[in-house]
């Protein structure tokens, strides 16, 4: 019965993950963003088109690699310290406790990442905000003279830019909020909380906090690069950071449930090794 429950848990995990991932895939493949118009004197949309510093593939690869490696290392160390769970039996095979805990934590992180991406991408398609390089990439031409109101707002237009292919025209309308910033901050917050709660060791007082700060700076850089690359307005990045941070906190506290691991133990108060008392002779 024990291994049957484990198999059922794995199947349910993948079903829940699919329920979040499939709508995200459908949005990317089928949905069309809202066709927002523009003001002909909007200088925030007149920045030049630039290639991305951090691509989606690079960000996702580095983010998942960092979390997977970190989770496995922490669980192996906890297991050697006697703080891990016992071994499990799955289909008659013995599964080390650290491996099962790693699977659970990686699965929860992946689920949270999918929820976070579904949140920001659904907003992208509903809002349809134009990117800062709109004029340079699209070079819009109003379809008729009646499409402009007294404020110079054009709703209907045609893109005649040299690089105005279908994929770029769709991506041009997905500025708000920044999915890069959201995923980077989600990963950073989850990483920081994970090693703060589960990464208990004796050693340098600043090592853990230094690593946490380095990851946070990495997420901060990703967000700033989106503004520098003219892919997002600063408000897109700010909202992306907020959504990612909120998702990271909620997923860690309410899904991973860190209370079962106990509060983090400072290195100064960690239990010292018990040494035999010296025998004193008179």
From TrEMBL:
Pfam families, A to Z: PAP2
Taxonomic path: Eukaryota, Metazoa, Ecdysozoa, Arthropoda, Hexapoda
Gene Ontology molecular functions: phosphatidate phosphatase activity
Record keyword Transmembrane helix present: yes
Protein name per its UniProtKB record: Phosphatidate phosphatase
GO CC aspect terms: plasma membrane
Gene3D superfamilies (UniProt xref): Phosphatidic acid phosphatase type 2/haloperoxidase
Stretches assigned to coiled coil: none
GO process annotations (BP): phospholipid dephosphorylation; phospholipid metabolic process; signal transduction
Keyword set, alphabetical order: Membrane, Transmembrane, Transmembrane helix
Membrane topology, as annotated: Multi-pass membrane protein
Gene: LOC112052782
Protein family membership: Belongs to the PA-phosphatase related phosphoesterase family.
Compartment(s) where it occurs, according to its Swiss-Prot or TrEMBL record: Membrane
Ranges of residues in domain Phosphatidic acid phosphatase type 2/haloperoxidase: 106-252
Transmembrane spans: 12-31, 57-77, 179-197, 209-228, 234-256
SUPFAM superfamilies, alphabetized: Acid phosphatase/Vanadium-dependent haloperoxidase
């Amino acid at each position: 019965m024990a291994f049957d429950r484990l198999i059922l848990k794995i199947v349910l995990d993948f079903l829940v993950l699919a329920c979040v991932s499939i709508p995200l895939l459908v949005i990317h493949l089928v949905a069309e963003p809202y066709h927002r118009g523009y003001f002909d004197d909007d200088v925030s949309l007149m920045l030049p088109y630039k290639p991305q510093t951090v691509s989606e593939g690079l960000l996702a690869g580095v983010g998942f690699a960092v979390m997977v490696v970190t989770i496995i290392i922490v669980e192996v160390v906890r297991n050697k310290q006697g703080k891990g769970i016992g071994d499990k039996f799955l289909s008659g095979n013995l599964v080390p406790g650290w491996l099962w805990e790693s699977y659970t934590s990686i699965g929860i992180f992946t689920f949270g990442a999918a929820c976070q991406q579904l949140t920001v991408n659904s907003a992208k398609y509903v809002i349809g905000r134009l990117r800062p390089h709109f004029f340079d990439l699209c070079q819009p031409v109003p379809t008729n003279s009646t499409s402009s109101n007294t404020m110079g707002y054009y709703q209907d237009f045609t893109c005649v830019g040299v690089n105005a292919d279908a994929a770029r025209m769709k991506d041009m309308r997905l500025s708000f909020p920044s999915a890069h910033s959201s995923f980077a901050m989600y990963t950073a917050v989850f990483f920081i909380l994970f090693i703060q709660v589960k990464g208990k060791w004796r050693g340098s007082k600043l090592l853990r906090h230094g690593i946490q700060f380095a990851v946070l700076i990495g997420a901060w850089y990703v967000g700033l690069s989106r503004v520098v690359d003219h892919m997002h307005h600063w408000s897109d990045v700010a909202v992306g950071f907020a959504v990612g941070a909120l998702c990271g906190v909620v997923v860690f506290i309410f899904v991973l449930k860190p209370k079962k691991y106990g509060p983090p133990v400072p290195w100064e108060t960690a239990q010292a090794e018990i040494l035999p008392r010296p025998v004193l002779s008179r």
